[in-house]
Design a protein that fits this description.
single chain, mainly alpha, 2 strands, 51% helix
Length: 113
Amino acid sequence: MGWRQSKGSSRKPGATVPPGRGRCRKRRAKRHLLPFLPELHTLYADYENYLRSDLREWGESILFDERTLGRGIFSPAFLRSIGARHQSGQEMHTIGKIAPIMTYEMMLRRLHD
C-alpha cells in the first residue's frame, strides 16, 4: 500500500500508518470544525486607556482628593508619581498599581466615612 512506518509514535514497532494519518490531526480538526463553531468574543476592555481618557477626571478625583491624601495611608508624592507615570503612557501595566489604591479608597469611603 505504500504506507510509511511510524517513527516516534506510541504505536508498536513495525506498525504502519496510512499517509496523512497521525500527523496534523489538530490542524485538520480545526479546519473542519471551525465553520460550525461560533466565533467567541472576549470581554477585553482597555482599562489603562480608559483611565487616561474617558475616566481621567473620575480617577484623579479619587487619587488626589483631600480625603485620600489626608488619611496618610499613601504618600501624596507617590500618588502624584504613579498618576503622572500612568498618564504619560510610557510605562505599561500601571493600572495594576492604581486600581488597588482606588478600590481601597472607595471601600474606605463607603465603610468608614
